[in-house]
Amino acid sequence: MNIIWLGHGSFRIEIGDQILLIDPWLSGNPMLPEDRVPEAIADATQILVTHGHFDHTQDVAKLSKDKDLPVSGMYELAQYLYSQGATEGHAYNRGGTVTFGDVSVTLVPASHSSSIVVDGRGVYMGQECGFIIRGEDKTIYHSGDTAIMADMQWIGDVYRPDIGILSAGGYFTMDMAGAAYAARHYFHFGTVIPCHYKTFPILEQSAKVLRDGLPGVKVIEPEVLDPIAL
Prior knowledge:
Layout: E1 2-5, E2 11-15, E3 18-22, H1 37-41, E4 46-49, H2 54-57, H3 60-67, E5 70-74, H4 75-83, E6 87-92, E7 97-100, E8 103-109, E9 115-118, E10 121-124, E11 129-135, E12 138-142, H5 151-159, E13 163-167, H6 176-186, E14 191-195, H7 208-212, E15 218-219, E16 228-229
Parallel strand pairs: 3-4, 4-5, 5-6, 12-13, 13-14, 14-15
Antiparallel strand pairs: 1-2, 1-16, 2-3, 7-8, 8-11, 9-10, 11-12
């Protein structure tokens, strides 16, 4: 398995027989060099979306249409993206699980907000979410954009993820200290990868607080397009 950060909240996950793009922000992403976009999306098989904000969805419909990549996510958001030309995948809801070849993906709650600007106004796009991704005998929890929430307790108990990809930049999501608290109290991760940080000055720039708060856990600060092999 390779987990590859595309900057901000965007990931490429090579797992089983699938290459998943999660919230691929390709145009205007300050962390993703434009000349490396082809590398970021090469041979992808699915697009997964966590919520509607522009830095998670603005490139999804065009990418999906151009590459014939199915899009899956929260029902309202997925249906809107299909109306914009995206290839239909699974428009499902929290608690639901879908299977792509050797990989399963379950929608789980997040605590954030979800909208897209349409004709100058924000339009609600269904509830924000995270993902439980299973394959290669591993379970990944991708938190999506979220604050600390009590739902993390049952997510940890039910799915027992060993890898956590956690939004941790602060301001728009939980910060590094919050992510460390959540990981300690609700999960038993062997590996934690922070995201949604460094992108803008307002966000946290280092994962030191997260690392210091999780003794015994492998905290990996990702580098853009540098595969993390697990």
